Amino acid sequence: MRAVNEDELGSLLELPVIRACQRKWNLGRAEHGPVFVGDPLEELYGELADALNYTDQLELEGYSSMETIRDRLFQCATEIRDLWLEKQGFRDECVYHLTRNEHA
Questions:
Q1: Where in the chain are the domains?
Q2: Residues 36, 61 contacting (CB under 8 angstroms)
Q3: Is 91 helix (H, G, I), strand (E, B) or coil?
Q4: Helix (H) or strand (E) holding 82
């Protein structure tokens, strides 16, 4: 296994989404080995939380289209959390959703 060179990640925006995903996956496999490490639901939820925070920062930097993107990311995060709760044995009636206002 090897450490990921930050220059290898810097060019992801230059790639179409599918190719960026492939490169990111391949770099992860080179760094962590052939087996996925961790719980994909937990990892994805954390990545979505990061993405929501990034939209807040982008909005502060003047990007005006962040509300729609934030709402879609928030919906995805909510669905992933629901899947994780279901995996933990919670039934639908026990699942509590955050509202958009609780994120702000």
A1: 1-37, 40-103
A2: no
A3: coil
A4: helix 66-87
Read off the pLDDT of residues 58-94 as tens digits, 9 standing for 90 and up: 999 999 989 999 999 999 999 999 999 999 888 654 4
Give CA–CA dist 68/84, Å, rounded: 25
Number of continuous H segments (helices) and E segments (strands) in the chain: 5, 0
The runs of H, that is alpha helices, within 14-64 are 17-32, 40-60
Can you read off the two tokens belonging to residue 50? Answer: 């990061």
What are the structure tokens assigned to 96, written together? 């509590």
Angle formed at CA 90 by CA 97 and CA 101, multiple of 5 degrees: 10
Whole-angstrom Cα distance, residue 100 to residue 62?
Answer: 21
Dihedral angle at the C-alpha atoms of 25, 26, 32, 37, nearest 10 degrees?
30
Instruction: Look at the pTM and tell me if it is higher than 0.85.
Output: no
